[in-house]
Amino acid sequence: QVKYIESGGGLVQPGGSLRLSCVVSGIVFDFSAMSWYRRSPGKEREWVARIARDGDTTYTDSVRGRFTISRDNAKNTVYLQMNSLKPEDTGVYYCHVYGDWGQGTQVTVSS
Questions:
Q1: Dihedral of the CA atoms 62, 46, 43, 25 (nearest 10)?
Q2: How far apart are CA 95 and CA 78, in angstroms?
Q3: Where does 1-111 show beta strands of DSSP type E?
Q4: What is the DSSP letter of 38?
Q5: What is the pLDDT of residue 31?
Q6: Is the pLDDT reported for residue 24 higher than 90?
Q7: Rounded distance, CA 79 to CA 57, Å?
Q8: Burial bucket for residue 88 (CB in 10 Å: 0-12, 13-18, 19+)
Q9: In whole angstroms, what is the distance from residue 100 CA to residue 109 CA?
Q10: Binning pLDDT at 50, 70 and 90, where does residue 73 land?
Q11: What pLDDT score was predicted for residue 103?
């Protein structure tokens, strides 16, 4: 059974930064592409970023150039470095590849 434990969220002012972490268990992490998603208030959950097995990365247009996804296979962990945060980045952030979703971590961007 896959399990995701997200952390690192918080309250930050516009223009600030946060680094999210997600520890994954129950899968062969090295062989899995990993993605981050977010659910903003009043919206459906949306895909944010993906990192492939080989480290290749892709991003949704709204975060490209501001967010960086990375992974540490030795720690079964995927990260999301978020810079130049905007109020519209507010939401609950999740990492996921398949199976049940984790609890997510809340990110609030507000002055």
A1: -130
A2: 8
A3: 3-7, 10-12, 18-25, 34-39, 46-51, 57-59, 67-72, 77-82, 91-96, 105-109
A4: E
A5: 86
A6: yes
A7: 12
A8: exposed
A9: 27
A10: very high
A11: 96
Q: Does residue 45 contact residue 106 with C-beta atoms inside 8 Å?
A: no
Tell me the two tokens of residue 52.
């492939």
The Cα 57–Cα 105 span in angstroms is 21
Q: Which residues, other chains included, contact 56 with Cβ-Cβ below 8 Å and sequence gap of 6+?
A: none
Flag whether pLDDT at 29 surpasses 90.
no
Say if residue 95's pLDDT is above 90: yes
pLDDT surpassing 90 at residue 80: yes
Per-residue pLDDT for 30 more than 90?
Answer: no
Cβ partners under 8 Å of residue 4, min gap 6:
22, 23, 24, 94, 95, 96, 101, 102
Question: Which among 110, 98, 89, 93 has a CA at the least distance from the CA of 21?
Answer: 93
Amino acid sitting at position 46:
E
